[in-house]
Each structure stands twice: as structure tokens, then as C-alpha cells.
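Methods — Computational structure assignment.
A single polypeptide chain was analysed. Its primary sequence is given first, followed by the predicted tertiary structure written as C-alpha cells.
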Amino acid sequence: MQNKHMLMIPGPTPVPERVLLAMAKHPIGHRSSDFSKVIGELTENLKWLHQTESDVLMLTVSGTGAMEAGIINFLSPGDRVLAADNGKFGERWVKLCKAFGLNVEVISSEWGKPLKKEDFQEKLEADKEKTIKAVIMTHSETSTGVINDLESISKIVKDHGEALLIVDAVTSLGATNVPVDKWGIDVVASGSQKGYMIPPGMGFVSVSKKAWKAYETAKIPRFYLDLGKYKKETDKNSSPYTTPVNLMYGLQAALQMMKEEGLEAIFERHQRLTQGTREAMKAMGLPLFGPDHCASPAVTAVAPTMDAEKLRSTLRKKFDIAVAGGQDHLKGQIFRIGHLGFVCERDLLTVIAALEATLLDLGYEGLNPGAGVAAAAKVFN
């Protein structure tokens, strides 16, 4: 049957009908007084979501564009930085830093395992001359389903005193608690197609007062992604360049929905979906790729004892359900179920039941039919 596709990947994520209808409105001038009011509301609600009183800026980019903006506005070529790598997107931070001539020291953990706060502590405590200008990391590592201990690492960075903390929160913001001011995070990059519940095309960067001070002396060339321009115009409820008007209508509706649900309820829902998904996989005899204590609230990575790509293909063909595959060396070894944004218990029960039927079809050994749905239902109830 056509138009029954079910998107259960960690981005893009499902978009609510209320958001789609908002995006279907006729566009208006992005310099008009009516749209200025929209920008003002968006800015206020973005600060609410980030739990910050500092600036949150809207860019017409992907999450990677927001990450790039987080590098080039606050650092200079040759600056010494610590870049954390325990997955595909941590690896992307390292590549970005090297592309802009930074002096990169990589703190790494095996894919599927969290970063160790002790590795950061050792480097930062040894830096008596305060030459480390930034610590750069990913909060929720989408490629492996692992969440890093941002709260503990942020305390270590604050104790250093000099280094900025620059964070990719692309699949954590809107799915789990990221209190920007409380934790002292200086720069947070995120993207629209994840917890924000709108299509791809917008990036967001929050900037602390400490980061703005670093901006004054940063020497990496910038033009379109010069955040100083965005701050100047955002303060006037405007923008330096043409905005994606209809995406911003969608963002307006999505943030209104999030405020109606409430931050704590959003975080509890994502945690419940994560636990239900993981318990279902265990009951079905499907090994999880990462341990429970560092499970991402956005995505669950599963390592079946069979070709994961064949499983994904069969699930798509028989039930028109899309789950994500493994990246790089994990291709064919894992699949990933996204459960962030506009996702509820019914969605996960549907996916789990379809997955059980797919495993039966493929002759997966050790499967107890119905066990996955029962395990998830127990958590959800």
C-alpha cells in the first residue's frame, strides 16, 4: 500500500501533522513586521529549550553547518584543542578541526563505548599554562547509540577555566536534559531534523558570554557563518540573510508543541522509549551494541548475529519500515532504531512486532515470538 512508509531512523525523524500544516502556509516577507514577531517567538522558545539566557542563533544549514560555525567563530589557526572521537560524529569534529588548521589532540574511545572523563581530566589538569583553548565533543553519538557523560566532562572543563566547551547536541537536544547554563556549555550545535521534529534545513548554535569574548579575537575567516552578524540581527528580531520562512513556521509549531508537553515530560518519554526498545531487543535475543548505562535516548544500536543489511532490507520490503544501518566498519554489523522527536509507544510496538515477524521470516535462531512486544509493553505500562 502506498504512503504507509514508517520512518524510524535517527534523522530525519517523523514530522507532526501540525508542523506540516504550519509549513504549508503561504510564505510572507522575511523582512516584514509580521515575520519579525515569528523570529522573536522562536528565539524565546529556543532559549527555553536550551535552558539558557544567552544567545541561540538560527542558521540555514544542516547540523554539520552548525558544528562548523561553532569552530570558526571562536578559535584561531594553531589553537590547541581536545577533540573527542568515539563514533562517526566525533570523528567529524576531528576532521573539522584539522580542516581549519587547529592543533588537534584526539581523545578517543572504541566505537560503542563512552568517552572516559578521566582522559579529559588528565589533559586539562596537566595544562598549567592554559594553552588548551577548547574541548570539543559529541553528546549523543548517533552512529553507535551511546551517550557521553557531558555533565561530568563539563565540570572538568569549567575547572580548567580557560578552555571553551563546544558540543554537538544534534541528537540529544530535545531528547534528554541539556541545561546549557547550569552545565556551563559555551557552544551547542544542533539540527532541525532530530528532536525539533521538523525537516532538515536549519541549524542552531547557542553561544555563552565566554564564547563571545573568544569571538572577539578568533582569526579563522568567516562570512556566511559569522555568528556576530546573526546575533546583531537576532537582537532586532531579524536575520542577516534570507531565512527559510516555511521551515520556521514549522519550527514555531514544533516548539509550541514541545512547550505544551513540557521538558521533563519530553525527557521522560524518550527515556521510556529507550528502555522499552532495549528490553524488547534483549527479549528477542538480539544483542545490543552498547551497554545500558550509556544508552542514547535518541537511537538504539543492535548487533544481530546475521547480516544487518539483509534484515533492514526485508523489514523495509515487507513492512515499509525504515531503520538505519551501520556506518563505515559497522555496515552490515548493526542496525539502529531511531526513537526521538515525534515518536510514541505505539510506534515502537509496531516496529518491534514487525521486526519479530521479519526475524521469523529470515529464520533467526533463538527467537521467542511475541517476547519483544511483551517486554516493551511491560516497560510502557
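Note: The two ends are 31 Å apart (CA to CA).
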